[in-house]
Design goal:
The complex is a heterodimer of chains A (147) and B (455). Chain A is mainly β and 147 residues long. Chain A has helices spanning 86-89, 91-96, and strands at residues 2-7, 14-15, 20-26, 39-43, 55-58, 63-72, 77-84, 98-103, 116-117, 122-131, 137-142. Chain A has two helices and eleven strands, in the order βββββββααββββ. The longest helix of chain A has 6 residues, at 91-96. Chain B contains five helices and 38 strands. Classes of the chains: A mainly beta (147), B mainly beta (455).
Chain lengths: 147, 455
């Protein structure tokens, strides 16, 4: 069975994690293998430092795993404690799911947002392109137009 | 060389035409030659439609050519230059009944328009090519904004009487329409060349018969010097006809001022003043466009809009009418009271959505007669007051949202397929269709509820 070790800096709550430095290793699993929280015992491989890896994928199980810890049992055998990353494993179905959720505001959102506001206000001004012009005008009105 | 015969003359006279050769009446025995101009003059009531004269035998072409006379536009005459060998007595003449009238040309229409009136015949607006027929009524309608004072047309100078005949249009009481009956008394030239139509701009939107003038201190002083007019044993104070003198803080649009000045109250001296054509002076205070910044609810949230207006208290306006819109402001100034109606419109509704009033000007005290009390009605200055603002401006007072654009700020509730979004979201409800066991499904829901970052 193929095991692919990865390094990732992506957080546990990220969907579409960035996986790097893949190392393919052939493994054999025991009958009591826990596919959700598996423990894997791997023999040392020259040129590969197991402590550098924090993520893995087992194609036959179609699952991604966090590597929670790597413990050296002896000089040649290392124990990997793994935990299924359900977000990455089921991301295709998750992304296609309809959901009600809260997200960041974006252009075109004209609903009452739930923000915290600064207590001091900013003031901007916009001036008209026309106004009163010239000197004052004195106007006299009289009765009658036939004078 | 050919000679006029009786047959030739009869050919034309039988069709009520008079034949002329080289612009003189033709007579029997008159000689004429190639190139001489023949003119056929139609008798009264007759209109020439066509004249065709047969030419001499053309040996080359083999036949008799036909020569078409040139007929005048009104059918009153036709001309042709004689071609040697032609047979004038073999002329085919077509005539009809003449329409007697004056032809209206573009020059005629322009002449009336230049006098600020529009010409009509029997009530029908005149057009190019129309005729003013004998017995019809010629009308003139004043253009908008004008009043006809008089309209006189002139005939030709008569050496016998030593005078020039004239005819005067009858003008209606409103001064907007005049009529004149067209007859054969010799008014043709006058009708086609109107030179004495007098109109004046009218102040039709001024209440009643009041007058509004633009004055200055010198004119007021002249009014005061000339206002008392002796009338027999008494003296009339023309100052009693003054309704108000106000000062407004702007100039008046030239289009609202008559081209003709008038003496205030008809007084003498230097009281000639510009006449304002309205007693409700509109002043366009322009427009203000306020752009959106975010194009979302942040543009409106915690936002106050205060419009500052000249000579008025500020007015708070709902941001709906302001943000992303254009505001327009117009003042309508009442010249009697100096009060102004302020109309504020917005592109949000494309019409006036707010109206308020203020007092704009200052009542100027003027000289009084002996029995009046002091006319110092300046109390209104306190209502509006000069706030030193000459242009409107709007204040946008805004409390900025903190972290409104923050990476983990989830302020907007949405319902959609998650794949359409990126960034940090917190799921409240989800229709999750995955082939996972229960604990995995629960783990997915827990993770989504806690918040996930979709990249």
């Amino acid at each position: 069975m193929l095991l692919i070790l990865y390094r990732t800096e992506s957080g546990a709550n990220v969907i579409n994690k960035t996986l790097e430095d893949a190392v393919n290793i052939q493994i054999t699993v025991r009958n009591d293998f826990d596919i959700i929280n598996p423990q894997l015992k791997l023999s040392k491989i020259d040129g590969v430092n197991f402590q550098d890896y924090n993520y893995c994928y087992i194609p036959d199980l179609n699952r991604y795993y966090f590597i929670n810890s790597v413990v050296a049992i002896n000089a040649d055998i290392f124990n990997f404690e793994c935990e299924c990353d359900v977000l990455e494993t089921y991301k295709a179905d998750i992304l296609l799911s309809n959901a009600r959720f809260k997200r960041k505001i974006k252009q075109g959102d004209y609903i009452d947002p739930d923000f915290e506001y600064r207590i001091n206000a900013d003031i901007t001004t916009h001036e008209s392109n026309k106004g009163f012009t010239g000197d004052d005008t004195m106007i006299l009105t009289t009765v009658g137009s036939g004078f | 060389m050919a000679t006029i015969t009786q047959a030739v003359i009869d050919t034309f006279s039988d069709s009520s035409l008079t034949l002329r050769v080289s612009y003189q009446d033709a007579y029997v025995g008159q000689n004429y030659m190639d190139g001489d101009t023949f003119t056929a003059m139609a008798d009264s009531g007759v209109s020439i439609e066509s004249i065709v004269t047969e030419g001499g035998y053309d040996a080359v072409a083999g036949g008799y050519p036909e020569y078409q006379w040139s007929v005048s536009n009104d059918g009153s005459s036709a001309t042709w230059d004689y071609v040697d060998g032609s047979y004038l007595s073999y002329s085919v003449i077509e005539t009809g009944v003449a329409v007697v009238g004056l032809n209206i040309t573009q020059e005629v229409l322009d002449a009336y328009n230049a006098s600020n009136v529009v010409l009509d015949v029997d009530g029908v607006p005149a057009s190019l090519g129309d005729l003013i027929t004998m017995g019809s009524t010629v009308g003139i309608t004043a253009l908008d904004g004008f009043t006809i004072l008089s309209a006189i047309i002139y005939g030709s100078y008569d050496p016998g009487s030593g005078s020039t005949p004239e005819w005067e249009f009858s003008i209606n009481a409103d001064g907007d329409y005049g009529t004149l009956l067209y007859d054969d008394s010799g008014m043709d030239n006058g009708l086609l060349n109107p030179t004495d139509i007098t109109v004046e701009e009218k102040a039709e939107i001024i209440s009643g018969t009041n007058s509004v003038y633009i004055v200055n201190a010198e004119i007021i002083e002249e009014i005061n010097n000339n206002r008392f007019i002796p009338d027999g044993s008494t003296t009339i104070d023309y100052g009693q006809y003054i309704l108000s003198i106000i000062s407004i803080p702007t100039q008046i649009e030239p289009s609202l001022i008559s081209a003709t000045k008038r003496n205030v109250l008809g007084l003498g001296g230097n009281t000639l003043a510009d006449v304002v054509l309205t007693d409700l002076i509109p002043v366009d205070m322009g427009s203000i466009t306020i752009p959106e910044i975010y194009n979302d609810s942040r543009d409106f949230s915690r936002t106050e809009c205060v419009l500052h207006l000249p000579y008025s208290q500020p007015v708070a306006i709902d941001s709906e009418y302001v943000i992303g819109q254009t505001l327009s402001v117009e003042y309508l100034i009442d010249v009697y009271t100096a009060s102004a109606t302020i109309n504020i419109s917005s592109t949000k509704v494309n019409e006036v959505f707010l109206t308020k009033t203020t007092t704009l000007g200052v009542n100027v005290p003027y000289a009084l007669n002996r029995t009046d009390s002091a006319n110092l009605k300046n109390s209104n200055i306190d209502i509006g007051g000069n706030n030193k603002i000459s242009k409107c401006f709007i204040e946008i007072i805004k409390n900025e949202a903190i972290l409104s654009d923050g990476f983990f700020t989830t302020s907007i509730l949405d319902e959609d397929s998650i794949i359409n979004h990126t960034g940090f979201i917190k799921v409240e409800e989800i229709e999750l269709n995955i082939s996972a066991n229960y604990s995995e499904k629960q783990s997915v829901i827990d993770a989504l509820t806690a918040g996930v970052l979709i990249k």
